[in-house]
Amino acid sequence: MEMRDVTVVRDGRIALDSVSLTIERGENVAILGPNGCGKSTLVKLIDRELYPRADHGSMRILGRQRWNVTELRKELGIVTNDLQAQILPETSVLDAVVAGFQGKLGVYYDEGTPERLAAAQAALVAAEAAHLSDRVFGALSSGEARRVLIARALAHDPGSLLLDEPTTSLDLVSAHALLETLRRTGKGLVLVTHHLEEIIPEIDRVVLLKAGRILADGPRREVMTSQNLSQLFCTDIVLQGDGPYSAQVRR
């Protein structure tokens, strides 16, 4: 993905302001920032739910400016809160995973070819969710639902995973287990979060996003400093340890 001087306006206000950012295929990157900084807008921009201002800057995804949205989403494995909310409670887990092949955000019934069904079952195994295949989505816990979404994202063998706040609403144990699963996928990761502990060791580059602008971008050890984080979150933060991170907030 290559963005050059991109601006996005939402609800009459600037959500991303002249952002330039390049993420290579297969790269492991975290986009870190507080609530309201533009992270969700960036996710929607990448998966083409939103578009930048046509008169300001340019954007290419996988080398192309124009995409059939359905085809683009087949190149990405997407895990977002919006997607989880769009899956009907009565949808079977297997149907939810197979629907990932269609490149659509919602779930549309698809009987699936034998090859797709086999790939969906293999993805459930990879996400440690094979035991959930006979259940319906609405009966899952938050942690189980996240694992099914990861399986859905993996089933069509995308080049990269786009993850928006992947451990939202999970308890400590479930969040840790989910992050360990993500580490084993072997896929390029674009991780969008405000949680420092989600930045797993495989993430080697961090982009700090504040008020719709890039505050810092570079190698994880250089960007993740107490000074940068204090500026990012507008409070005095002391960073302790290195991967997984913990932080002490001073008031």
From TrEMBL:
Short name of any one Pfam family annotated for the protein: ABC_tran
Cellular compartments per GO CC: ATP-binding cassette (ABC) transporter complex
Keyword line: ATP-binding, Nucleotide-binding, Transport
Source domain of life: Bacteria
Entry GO MF terms: ATP binding; ATP hydrolysis activity; ATPase-coupled transmembrane transporter activity
Membrane-traversing stretches: none
ABC transporter domain location: 1-236
Family that this chain belongs to: Belongs to the ABC transporter superfamily.
Name recorded for this polypeptide: ABC transporter, ATP-binding protein
